[in-house]
Design brief:
The complex is a heterodimer. By secondary structure, chain A is an alpha/beta fold. Chain A is built from eleven helices and twelve strands. Chain A starts with 16 loop residues before the first strand and ends in a 20-residue tail after the last strand. The chains are: A alpha/beta, B mainly alpha. Chain B: Keywords: Cell membrane, Membrane, Transmembrane, Transmembrane helix, Transport.
């Protein structure tokens, strides 16, 4: 059989987004830091890919690279990003600008700071739509009201002329979602869209995102460190560690039966709600700094199953049966093979 | 809105009273008006009569109240030096200073803001570096030195522009303007540049710093992520957000320009209020000094009020905040 695990689950012809061997570098005074190294994944039309990992694992950076807005001096130093088969990582500013908003929408973390405080939400919506779509002022205003209704803003026809500070955090994130979707992109990059919100609001926002993505057939890259959000929303999940993809596969398999020792540690560190625990499980040590990523597998100093090969050779994503994991335990040629102990069931 | 204006005006009253007290105190402590006005030969009866006429035998509070009452009506008495009403002297000189200040402020804003935006957007271009170097010169050279250097270059060496005075002026009612004659406009150039140079560099540096700050914010990144063009991002979203602090500083600077035109007016022998003030100081002409002090205070208070109102127009968050607070 063909390998299907790194292929998107979605329907339709090709993937909407293909990321291949993406490498992002930051030149600094003390040498070049590699923030992303060999990151590869696909997203199918209408599919939700969750991206998880600790802070600094490169989740947000991957999103920024896709929308072409890496903070300088960061730059894409290798690999490629394709949108609907068209290469976009090497586009000049102007063609890339026309893609942003129109073909790839973005949602940021903190709704309190993402909206310009000096303009009404209606103006910001109208301006975005008129940048990308050929709309008269009246049509654009009508659609702006329509979008506010769609994201669940009550009395949208009045609220369209309100300023961002007149909305609560959750309402503002709804406005941000409307702004990301209003030019009807086929892909949304959502960077921690619920992290800055109250827990009670988080579920509403996730439900809204999920519903809109389904209704509009929008694919989504959902960056978060919240496994609960991933489990609830994503079709597949990519686990990142030190700027690399550690494991990628269908969300059920990755959550229930992780194959990479890092994913295993990550899942084990989520405290169960159904029984009392006396110690919170964690992973020994800390993620390496970008300037000190060890040779071989980046996780090897913290890995309970480490063996000689891990310290020398860097593992590629290998088929594990259910997911694909960057771990030598799954290479039949390795002297050590995966133990059964990861199966949490 | 109206409540806000009224409350600001009420706040301004103590400020004006304090300045009035200082002005008033000058009469009592800087020289003795009676001996100044009597001259060399006088009798004791004349002296007593004058003290009585001037109201100097009344209590301090009564004198101060009279002073305030007169000041509110624009009556600051007679100049010791010129023996003419002070209000008339100042009204005569005000157009010259106000036109000069207006030109200097316009120059500072119209050149300073674009330069600040440019240096904020293109941080590493050679032109930005050139602007910044130039601004260091503007900030660090004293005004009188800039004025003298400009006179040396443009009046003495090149002979293009006059080195002193206002040129020909046209009377429009009580207002004398230099804008309507060619020589008047030529005469305005050097003093305006001299007076506006410091403000220009200050505004440029301020706009640059604010632009750099704003361009780092999330809403600018989000505006880019929505695919807005550079023009919309830079001028629609970024520049407007830099305006609040720029308005504050520009407003205070405008007051400063008017108040401290003294140096420039002296260098260029500009017949404005500043020159009048300097001449009054050397002659200990206290009524003029007192009136000038109060006028400048009034200008500062007014500008501050206007600046606060401009905040309202620029930043919607203040409208709501104040509105709600005013509603209680």
């Amino acid at each position: 059989m063909m390998q299907v695990q790194d292929r998107p689950l979605g329907r339709g012809p090709g993937p909407i987004l293909e990321v291949r061997d993406l490498r992002v570098e930051f030149p600094t005074r003390r040498g070049v830091l590699t923030a992303l190294d060999g990151v590869s994944f696909d997203i199918a039309p209408g599919e939700v890919l969750g991206v998880v990992g600790e802070s600094g694992a490169g989740k947000s950076m991957t999103g920024a690279a896709i929308i072409g807005l890496l903070e300088p001096p960061g730059r894409i130093a290798g690999g490629e990003i394709r949108l609907n088969g068209r290469r976009i990582d090497n586009l000049p500013y102007e063609p890339m600008r026309r893609i942003r908003g129109r073909e790839i929408g973005a949602i940021f973390q903190d709704p309190l700071t993402t909206l310009n405080p000096l303009y009404t939400v209606g103006r910001q919506l109208i301006e975005t739509m008129q940048t990308h779509l050929d709309l008269s002022d009246r049509e654009a205003r009508q659609r702006a009201i329509g979008w506010l209704e769609m994201v669940g803003i009550p009395a949208a026809a009045q609220r369209v002329d309100s300023y961002p500070h007149e909305f609560s955090g959750g309402m503002r994130q709804r406005v941000v979602i409307a702004l990301a979707l209003c030019a009807e992109p086929k892909l949304i990059v959502a960077d921690e869209p619920t992290t800055a919100l109250d827990v009670s609001i988080q579920a509403q926002i996730i439900a809204l995102l999920k519903r809109l993505a389904r209704e509009k057939g929008t694919a989504m890259m959902l960056v978060t460190h919240d496994m609960g959000v991933i489990a609830e929303t994503a079709d597949r999940v990519a686990v990142m560690y030190a700027g690399r993809v550690a494991e990628i596969g269908p969300v059920r398999d990755v959550v229930k039966a992780p194959k990479h020792p890092y994913t295993d540690g990550l899942m084990a560190s989520i405290p169960p709600l159904d029984r009392k625990v006396h110690h919170l499980a964690g992973i020994e040590g800390a993620m390496p700094r970008l300037s000190a990523i060890p040779r071989g597998c980046a996780f090897n100093p913290r890995c309970p199953h480490v063996f000689d090969r891990c310290r020398v050779e860097r593992p590629e994503l290998l088929d594990t049966g259910t997911t694909r994991a960057a771990c030598w335990l799954y290479d039949p040629a390795s002297e050590k093979q995966a133990p059964e102990l990861f199966r949490h069931a | 809105m109206l409540a806000f204006v009224i409350s600001r005006i009420l706040q301004a009253i103590p400020v004006m009273l304090a300045v009035a007290l200082i002005s008033f105190a000058m009469f009592a402590y800087v020289g003795d008006p009676v001996s100044i006005m009597l001259g060399q030969d006088f009798t004791e009866a004349q002296r007593t009569q004058l003290i009585h006429d001037l109201g100097l035998d009344q209590s301090f509070l009564m004198q101060f109240a009279t002073f305030i009452g007169n000041a509110v009506q624009g009556n600051f008495g007679l100049s010791y030096r010129l023996s003419r009403p002070v209000a008339e002297l100042i009204a005569e000189r005000a157009p010259a200073t106000l036109e000069l200040a207006f030109c200097a402020a316009a120059l500072a804003m119209l050149i300073g803001v674009p330069m600040g935006v440019y240096t904020g957007l293109y941080r590493n271009s050679w032109l930005s570096r050139a602007f910044l170097t130039f601004s260091l010169v503007g900030v660090s050279l004293p005004t009188f030195l800039i004025g003298i250097l400009l006179i040396l270059i443009f009046s003495v060496w090149l002979g293009w522009l006059p080195s002193f005075g206002r040129g020909e002026v046209v009377q429009l009612g009580w207002w004398s303007t230099g804008f309507l004659t060619w020589s008047g406009i030529k005469a305005l150039i050097l003093p305006s540049v001299t007076l506006g140079m410091f403000q220009l560099t200050l505004i440029m540096r301020l706009v640059r710093a604010e632009m750099l700050e704003v361009l780092r914010t999330d809403y600018i990144k989000f505006a880019r992520a929505r695919g807005l063009g550079n023009r919309a991002v830079h001028f629609g979203h970024a520049l407007k957000n830099t305006l609040v602090p720029v308005i504050t500083i520009a407003g205070l600077q405008l007051g400063g320009i008017i108040a401290f035109a003294i140096v420039t007016e002296t260098v260029f022998q500009w017949p404005g209020m500043g020159l009048l003030f300097i001449q009054s100081v050397s002659a200990a002409d206290i009524p003029v000094m007192a009136a000038y002090l109060m006028l400048i205070a009034l200008i500062f208070v007014t500008i501050n009020l206007v600046v606060d109102l401009l905040y309202y127009l620029v930043d919607p968050r203040l409208r709501i905040g104040r509105g709600a607070a005013g509603g209680h």
